[in-house]
Amino acid sequence: MTEQNDQYAVIGDRYSDFKDTAPLAGPEAHNVLKHLGDLTGARVLDLACGHGHYTRLIKSAGAAEVVGVDLSPVMVELARETEQKDPQGITYHAADAVNLPRLGEFDLVSAVWLLNYATTKDELTSMLRGIHDNLVPGGTFVALTVWPEFDPFGPEWDAYGLRVVSETPAEDRGVLVTDLIGTETSTITTSRWSYEAFAECLAAAGFATYSWHVPEVPAESVERFGDAFWDNYRANPIPGLLIGTRTATPGGTPAELRAVVKGLDADLSAGDWAPTELERVLAAKLLTGVPEGGLPTVDAVRAVFWEGSEAFLRENGGRPALVLGALLPVLEAGGEEASAAAGAAVTLLRRFS
What we know:
Blueprint: H1 2-21, H2 25-36, E1 43-47, H3 53-60, E2 65-70, H4 73-85, E3 91-94, E4 106-112, H5 121-134, E5 135-146, E6 162-170, E7 173-180, E8 186-193, H6 195-205, E9 209-213, H7 219-225, H8 231-235, E10 239-245, H9 254-270, H10 277-287, H11 298-314, H12 319-333, H13 336-350
Parallel strand pairs: 1-2, 1-4, 2-3, 4-5
Antiparallel strand pairs: 5-10, 6-7, 7-8, 9-10
Helix pairs in contact: 1-4, 5-6, 9-12, 9-13, 10-11, 11-12, 12-13
Keywords: Methyltransferase, Plasmid, Transferase
Pfam family, one: Methyltransf_25
Domain Methyltransferase: 44-139
C-alpha cells in the first residue's frame, strides 16, 4: 500500500481542495451519509479518512465516537490541524488498512475510496477482514469504491471532476489511472475490482451478507447544476456503494435465525420485499424432497450457496442468503430448539413459490 501513501504525500493539499469543490462532492456525501443511516450515539471508524472530510461530517451528524484512519501521514496531519482549529473530539491515526489493528468495537465502519486501492486479492481480503474485526456483531460497513460495472470507455466524467486516463486489465481488476480535475490536476492510480473478486474476498473476510447500491443524485445537486448535467453520472457511475453486515451472533443461534426469518417474513407479507426468480428457483431446489415438517440437510444448504454464486449474495439485498447463512449453524447444532427455528425458516422459504 506504499503506492497510495506516495500518491497522497504528493497531492495532499490539492486533494483537500478537490474534495471540497468538485461537483461530485455533493452526490458523494449524500450517498455516504444516507447509507450510514442515523448516526446518533454511534461509534464510527472512518477508514481512508484523508484530511477528515467525512470524519467531521459523521461527528457533526451525531456520532458519539469517531476515529479516523488513513495510510498517508500527510493527510492525517492535515486532519489533525483541522481538529486543533475546530475541536470535535475526533482521534486520528496513520495506519495501513491492509494491516489494520483492532482499534475498538464500532457500530459502523465507513470506507470511502479505500477498497479500490487494494492491488491484490490478498490486500482486498485483509482490508475487509480488518473492517470485520473492528465491527461489533451486527455492525455495518459502508464502502464507496469503484463500481464493478463502470465502463472506462463510456460516458465521461470530466464535468464532475474526474477524467479516466486509462485502464489496464490485471487478473480480477482493471488498473485505473484517473485525473482529479481541480485548480491543479492530480493523477491517481486505483483498482476496479470485479464482482467475483469482491464475493471471494468478502467471504474470506467473514461477511456472509452484503449488497451493492447505485449512487443517486440528490435534489440539491440537480437544483444547483440542472438535471441534464448529471446524465453521464447516472449512465456510467464510477462510484458504487458496498454495504455489508457482520453476523449478529458469530456461530449462529436459533434466536438469531428466528429474528432473521421474522424480519423477512414481515416484509414479504407487507409487500415491501419479493424474491427474485433466482431466489424462487434456489428455494424450490433446496426444498425438493423435503417432506412437510422436515428439514433440508446441511449439504443441501451449502449446495444452494454454491449454485447461487455471486448473484444470490449480491442481488435483492441478499436476504434469503442471510436466512440460509443463519440456518447452516443451526442445522449443524441440532436439538429441539434448533429444529423449531429451522422449521420456521423452511416455512418462509416455501412461501417463495
